[in-house]
Specification:
11 helices, alpha/beta, globular, TIM Barrel
C-alpha cells in the first residue's frame, strides 16, 4: 500500500482566511479540520474545495516527499479562494516506510540512519515552503524513537530533531512530533533533550492505541503542555505482534473521546482537531462527515 493510501490523505481541507498555522488559534474552543494532500499543483484547488464541501474550518496539508517551493503560490491562492486555514504542513520525506512493528523501526522518520539526511532535507524544504505560504507549523512522524536514552541511536535521533527544529524555528514556526511510535515519556524526553522551545506535539489519539503505547487521556498527563495539534481518529489495540492495531471509524474503537475533550479543556486547548480516516473511497468522506457531527456535538457540550 502506498504511503498516501496508508496515511489516508483525503482530497479535501478546511477554511479560514489565512494560513498562519497554530499561531492563528482563535476563540475559546478547538476548531475542526481534516488532512489533505497537495503535493501536486494540479490537485491543490480540488483539495481545498472539498474541505469546504465537508463544512470544516482548517486542515493539515501533506506537501510531498521533497516539497517544491513552486507549490507556494497555488496553496496561497486556494486558501484565500476557499477561506481555508492550513494549520500545519506535513512531509514524511523520501524512501520506503513500513507501517508495522518490524519494518517501521528501520524505515520511519528520522531514526533510520540511512534515510536521515534525506528526511532532514525534506523537512527543511517543507519549512521553507510553509514560510512562503504563511503556515506556522511543520508536522511529521519522527519514527520509533528508542526508549533507552543511553543508546547512540537515541542521541543521533535527538540531534536530527534538533537540526530540523532549529531550521523550523528560524522560519518562525513550531515543529510538531506525532505520537504513537514511542511512549509518551520517551516523546517527552526527546522534546526536552532538544533544548528548543518550538518542539511540540501533534497528539494522534488513535496511534497510541494502534501502536500499543498507551491511551490518549493518560498521555495528556505526560505531554499535554506540549500539544499544539491533534488527530481525531479511532482504533483498536494490536493483537498481532507484527502488525499495528486496526483503525476504525470514530466511536467504534478504544479512544474515549469525551474524556479526551474534557482533558483538552482542562489544559485550555483551543487549537485544531484534525480528522483523519485512513481508508480510501466514498466511505472515507462519509466517515469524516460522521466524525465532524460527532465531534462538533461533543465540543459544544464540553466547551460550551
Amino acid at each position: 500500500m502506498s504511503r498516501l493510501a496508508r496515511r489516508g490523505f483525503l482530497a479535501a481541507a478546511a477554511g479560514a482566511p489565512f494560513l498562519r498555522g497554530q499561531a492563528s488559534t482563535a476563540g475559546h474552543r478547538p476548531r475542526l479540520g481534516v488532512v489533505i494532500d497537495v503535493h501536486r499543483e494540479d490537485r491543490v484547488d480540488k483539495e481545498f474545495a472539498r474541505v469546504r464541501e465537508l463544512g470544516l474550518t482548517c486542515c493539515q496539508a501533506h506537501v510531498g516527499e521533497m516539497p517544491a517551493i513552486a507549490l507556494a503560490g497555488p496553496i496561497r491562492d486556494a486558501a484565500k479562494k476557499y477561506q481555508v486555514e492550513v494549520t500545519a504542513a506535513m512531509t514524511l520525506g523520501p524512501g520506503k516506510i513500513d507501517w508495522d512493528f518490524y519494518g517501521g523501526p528501520r524505515t520511519c522518520g528520522l531514526v533510520p540512519a540511512d534515510l536521515r539526511a534525506q528526511r532532514i532535507q525534506a523537512l527543511t524544504l517543507a519549512s521553507d515552503l510553509a514560510k512562503a505560504c504563511g503556515i506556522g507549523a511543520i508536522h511529521t512522524h519522527c519514527g520509533f524513537i528508542p526508549e533507552d536514552p543511553n543508546l547512540p541511536l537515541y542521541r543521533d535521533t535527538v540531534d536530527a530533531i534538533r537540526k530540523v527544529a532549529g531550521h523550523v524555528r528560524a522560519n518562525g514556526q513550531i515543529f510538531l512530533m506525532e505520537t504513537g511510535q514511542e511512549s509518551p515519556v520517551t516523546l517527552l524526553r526527546a522534546i526536552t533533550d532538544t533544548g528548543l522551545d518550538n518542539v511540540k506535539v501533534n497528539l494522534d489519539v488513535a496511534n497510541l492505541i494502534l501502536y500499543g503505547k498507551g491511551e490518549p487521556v493518560g498521555a495528556l498527563d505526560v505531554i499535554g503542555q506540549y500539544v499544539r495539534g491533534l488527530h481525531a481518529k479511532d482504533g483498536l489495540y494490536p493483537t498481532n505482534p507484527r502488525q499495528l492495531g486496526k483503525e476504525v471509524p470514530i466511536g467504534q474503537g478504544r479512544v474515549n473521546f469525551p474524556e479526551v475533550i474534557r482533558k483538552l479543556k482542562q489544559l485550555n486547548y483551543t487549537g485544531p482537531i484534525t480528522i483523519e480516516r485512513e481508508i480510501e473511497g466514498p466511505q472515507q468522506g462519509a466517515d469524516i462527515q460522521a466524525s465532524r457531527v460527532f465531534l462538533e456535538k461533543l465540543i459544544q457540550q464540553i466547551y460550551g
